[in-house]
Amino acid sequence: MTYRETLMGINKVALLIAAALLAGPVAATAQEYTVKNLGTLGGSSSIGHGINAKGEVTGVSSITGDAAQHAFLYSSGTMQDLGTPSGPNSYGYGINESGHVTGDEEVIADEAERAFLYSNGTIQDLGTLGGTNSEAYGINASAQVAGYSQTTGNAAEHAFLYSSGSMQDLGTLGGTNSIGYGINAKGQVAGVSETKGDAGTHAFLYSSGSMLDLGTLGGKGSAGYGINAKGQVTGVVETKGGAAQHAFLYSDGTMQDLGTLGGKDSEGLGINAKGQVTGWANTTDNVAEQYAFLYSDGTMTNLNSLISKKEAALYTLTSGQAINDRGQIVANGTVNATGLQATFLLNPKK
């Protein structure tokens, strides 16, 4: 098992857990949303990961017959299969305003996975830092990409910044491994790195050639997943003594615990320019009860309580993945009638 597979964050094949909807009443001033099921590429399920300013979405869907999983681009009401030029499976994670998608694809000849950039109908292999595998998670308007790559001899896995045809090694916080997840328009990268002596894993903010340790809230671990234009970061952090893992918002040198929906754990995955955060949280200490949330104006709200009763009867939203500056959210969840996982686009009601 690789280092990235042991972390608390993104799991492209993880089965999203469905449970009975436990949602509180909606405050009179709370933003409400409409829900659109984005469907699949012919298979039984899909998982969304990224959204751009236009409301276009990327992720991964099973294809007809569930024979494989392919990266997709959802735009103008249609889910487009981005294909797999080198192997059976591909996965979309990040999308920018131009509809460029980044992710990874399997390369059968090398028995590897490679970071890719999809643009104008073509998937480009971004290469590696000398090792076998790489994956990409975030992309900005300038088509700069953040991710991770194995180094020469597969000795380590390092965060990278891909820009103008070149992959730059961002290093670590003194430990062996690191991963870049989110990137903003300034080329700042949020991610996670092992610290000196591999004593822990800490969230980082990479900016202007330097990797800043964002620390923890008393525990050993934290990881940064999303970053906005202001350099604010969201992710997950261990609480004191490692008793729980909570979503956080890092801003102006301070890491703020965003709490949960009443349960033990939560995780922040996406953040927009307003500092609104989306992710998932438990409502009880039963880890199976996982729900998508929106954190806004100091309050974490179960997204299932912000949709109509009719839609809540059809779907259960288990994780908010990303949010754009218009407040649109790409979320994952289940279709209640079948229990199958699906990708949803949440649009704010006016």
Outline the structure in words:
The chain is mostly beta strands and 350 residues long. The protein has a single domain, classed as Methylamine Dehydrogenase, Chain H (7 Propeller), CATH 2.130.10. The chain has one helix spanning 309-314; strands spanning 33-37, 42-51, 57-63, 69-75, 78-81, 90-95, 101-107, 112-119, 122-125, 130-139, 145-151, 157-163, 166-169, 174-183, 189-195, 201-207, 210-215, 218-227, 233-239, 245-251, 254-257, 266-271, 277-282, 290-296, 299-302, 315-323, 329-335, 341-348. The strands form seven sheets. Strands 1-28-27-26 form a four-stranded antiparallel β-sheet. A four-stranded antiparallel β-sheet has the order 2-3-4-5, with no helix packed on it. It starts with 32 loop residues before the first strand and ends with a strand. Mean pLDDT is 92; it is low at 1-28.
Tell me the name of the CATH homologous superfamily: Peptidase/esterase 'gauge' domain
Q: How much is the average pLDDT?
A: 92
Q: Structural class, from helix and strand content?
A: mainly beta
Shape assignment: globular
Primary descriptors:
about 350 residues; mainly beta; Methylamine Dehydrogenase, Chain H; 4-stranded antiparallel beta sheet; 1 helix; 28 strands
Q: In terms of topology, how is this protein built?
A:
Layout: E1 33-37, E2 42-51, E3 57-63, E4 69-75, E5 78-81, E6 90-95, E7 101-107, E8 112-119, E9 122-125, E10 130-139, E11 145-151, E12 157-163, E13 166-169, E14 174-183, E15 189-195, E16 201-207, E17 210-215, E18 218-227, E19 233-239, E20 245-251, E21 254-257, E22 266-271, E23 277-282, E24 290-296, E25 299-302, H1 309-314, E26 315-323, E27 329-335, E28 341-348
Antiparallel strand pairs: 1-28, 2-3, 3-4, 4-5, 6-7, 7-8, 8-9, 10-11, 11-12, 12-13, 14-15, 15-16, 16-17, 18-19, 19-20, 20-21, 22-23, 23-24, 24-25, 26-27, 27-28
